């Protein structure tokens, strides 16, 4: 099992049953949405997403992302290593990813039933990148991991809140 010296996790309460929430966050496009859109954390760049025939929704399925940031090529490949609907999913990088602020990582989520929906916990365990970016990883790795996990958890919660608000009956 790979050694990951860094850890970050965040939680969000989501107004959705565990199965409904799992169906949404099981989709790699939903999970990687923060990487595929232009943002300050991505220095205005975007990543492209690709999956194998398992679509990133089966154990052993592969997910690839590629792009560039400030003219530098970024690329990674992940494999789903655990999937237990509707409660847990974990994926991990294959080989050494070409990233700037984190190296190899294991990431996942857990869903816990709550009275008014579910609690989504998103976690990431990572290593610093190799040379020449190790210094950048030590400087910005935790901020990036935090941004990534919070965007996934917060995005899922917001998506279901909006969905719930749209389906609520109008009052007069």
How would you characterize this protein structure?
The protein is an alpha+beta fold and 172 residues long. 29% of the residues lie in helices and 35% in strands. The protein has four helices and seven strands, in the order E-H-H-H-E-E-E-E-E-E-H. It has a seven-stranded antiparallel β-sheet, covered by helices on one side. A hairpin with a 2-residue loop joins strand 3 and strand 4.
Please render the helix and strand layout as text.
Layout: E1 6-14, H1 18-25, H2 28-31, H3 33-36, E2 47-51, E3 62-69, E4 72-84, E5 88-93, E6 105-114, E7 117-126, H4 134-167
Arithmetic mean of pLDDT: 88
Examine the coordinates and then state which fold CATH places here, giving the name of the CATH topology of the domain at 6-37 and 83-167.
Alpha-D-Glucose-1,6-Bisphosphate, Chain A, domain 4
What percent strand? Answer: 35-45%
Helical/strand content category: alpha+beta
Shape: globular
Sheet with most strands: strand arrangement: 1-7-6-5-4-3-2
Distance between the termini: 58 Å
Q: What proportion of the residues is helical, as a percent range?
A: 25-40%
Major pleated sheet: 7 strands, antiparallel
CATH architecture of the domain at 6-37 and 83-167: 2-Layer Sandwich
Order of helices and strands: EHHHEEEEEEH
* The named CATH superfamily of the domain at 6-37 and 83-167: START domain
Number of strands: 7
Radius of gyration: 17 Å
Kindly list the characteristics that best describe this protein.
172 residues, alpha+beta, 4 helices, Alpha-D-Glucose-1,6-Bisphosphate, Chain A, domain 4
